[in-house]
Design brief:
Layout lengths: L2 H36 L2 E2 L7 E2 L13 E2 L10 E5 L7 E2 L12 E4 H4 L11 E2 L2 H7 L2 E4 L1 E5 L3 E9 L4 E4 L5 E6 L7 E2 L4 E6 L1 H20 L3 H16 L4 H8 L7 E5 L4 E6 L6 E2 L6 E4 L3 E9 L11 E5 L8 E8 L9 E9 L10 E6 L4 E7 L4 E2 L4 E8 L2 E13 L2 E6 L6 E5 L1 H20 L2
Helix pairs in contact: 4-5
Length: about 450
């Protein structure tokens, strides 16, 4: 045999030995990997339940299915690591300490999403999608109204409350308004007050009139008459009673006090025959033709409300009517317990349908603007972040963290995280979220294995 033949035979023998060694080494690794991926089963309806053997779900009784190892379809790189040292990682490709190129670690292998930590891409075949009722909807662009709702309570307009007081001691001779809640008009009599001091003041006024007539027009008589008249006016003597005295009438035994405004008697502290002292307030009259509505606005809603913002109010007591009002005051201090601020609105109430202490639903109306929108049902809100699952095609879904803006009806504005035209899950999103979390946790456990 020639030397060339010997070299060829030796080369072939070496290649055969290498291939055999490779098969001997690789086969157990492939079998071990396959066994690792096929070792876990979970319930299609309750993906949080897993088992190391096939069987039925103890929650719903459905047949357990193996957790698939997803190798097909688009895959995203989570990070890079050294092929010799798994602990040596990098967010960008480079060489390790031994000069070897870092290898990519894909998001589904790492158990994380490039967008959302702790979540992984999941694959749901068509049969399972139909089984769990999974549906998707597109991300659209359209008007966002920015309207938002809260609960409000009807309250008395404090600027329309009047208290009736007395300026001199006396006794209630007659009561014209004898119960709380009675409606009165401006100038209606409330009660008649007998006051000895008032009787003396009337007599002094008549004496000043007589003195002026005797002395004739002059400064002394005029000043005396003006002082006596001013005293009666300060005691709330009505003008018609002063005119009665001017025409030579007898002093009136009783002073009739009248309502200063039209409204409803909201407080009454006097009965007929009672004694009143100077400064007492026997009646309180409230004008309910205009009322306040007090609403609580959370911190995140405060930037969307301004003085003059229009609003509507609906009540269960008046279901077929919508009341229109506007914002007149925003409390400058946040309540430490509820993290809200009071917003005051004014509503006309000509028919008295809005009664103090009523509760109703308030809708604040702001100017609409265009923006990206997703259905409200597609958002999974964990408190510290908002996540949607975006379809990548082929039954694969990727979690995306989004920044939400205003809510408009059943859609929510999205400021970042998705693009127009992408499909997001709107039904069964919580099931996909559970499977995504489970897959990420299992992948993290596998990475921690020695």
């Amino acid at each position: 045999m020639s030397k060339t033949s010997l070299v060829v035979v030796a080369t072939l023998a070496g290649l055969a030995a290498g291939i055999t060694a490779t098969l001997i080494v690789k086969r157990p690794q492939s079998q071990e990997a396959a066994a690792e991926h096929a070792a876990l089963y979970h319930c299609p309806m309750h993906p949080e339940y897993t088992s190391d053997r096939p069987g039925d779900c103890p929650i719903c009784g459905m047949k357990l299915v193996p957790i698939e190892h997803e190798d097909a379809g688009p895959r995203k790189i989570a990070f890079y690591r050294s092929p010799m040292n798994a602990a040596e990682t990098s967010p960008v490709p480079k060489k390790d300490s031994m000069g070897m190129d870092f290898v990519p670690v894909y998001a589904d292998e790492a158990g994380v999403s490039p967008e959302v930590a702790g979540l992984a891409q999941v694959k749901v075949d068509a049969e399972r999608q139909q089984l769990i009722g999974l549906r998707t909807a597109p991300v659209t662009t359209g008007p966002i109204s920015g309207d938002w709702r809260t609960v409000g309570k009807v309250a008395v307009d404090e600027t329309r409350v009047r208290k009736v007081n007395v300026k001199t001691d006396g006794f209630v001779e007659k009561l014209f308004v004898d119960f709380t809640g009675k409606a009165v008009r401006k100038g209606d009599p409330l009660f008649a007050l007998y006051s000895p001091d008032l009787l003396v003041a009337q007599q002094d006024y008549l004496l000043a009139l007589q003195t002026q007539k005797q002395l004739g027009p002059g400064r002394a008589g005029d000043d005396l008459l003006a002082a006596a008249r001013r005293r009666l006016e300060l005691w709330d003597v009505p003008r018609d009673e002063l005119a009665h005295l001017d025409h030579g009438g007898e002093p009136l035994r009783d002073l009739t006090l009248v309502s200063p405004i039209a409204g409803v008697v909201t407080a009454k502290t006097v009965v007929q025959g009672a004694r009143l002292a100077a400064g007492d307030t026997p009646f309180e009259i409230t004008d309910l033709s205009q009322v306040w509505v007090l609403a609580d606005a959370h911190e995140m809603d405060l930037p969307r409300v301004r003085i003059g913002t229009p609003a509507t109010l609906t009540l269960d007591a008046v279901p077929d009517k919508v009341f229109k009002g506007r914002v007149t005051f925003i409390e400058p201090v946040i309540d430490a317990a509820t993290r809200t601020a009071k917003v005051r609105l004014v509503f006309p109430n000509p028919r008295g349908e809005l009664r103090p202490e009523m509760f109703g639903d308030i809708t604040f109306h702001t100017r609409p603007h265009d923006g990206l929108r997703v259905p409200a049902d597609s958002i999974i809100d964990s408190g510290d972040r908002k996540v949607v699952f975006v379809s990548l095609g082929g039954g694969r879904f990727e979690p995306r963290e989004i920044k939400a803006g205003d809510t408009s009806g059943d859609v929510v504005e999205v400021l970042s995280g998705v693009k127009a035209g992408e499909q997001v899950i709107v039904r069964a999103a919580f099931l996909v979220d559970s499977e995504s979390r489970l897959k990420a946790a299992l992948a993290a456990m596998q990475r921690r294995k020695p």
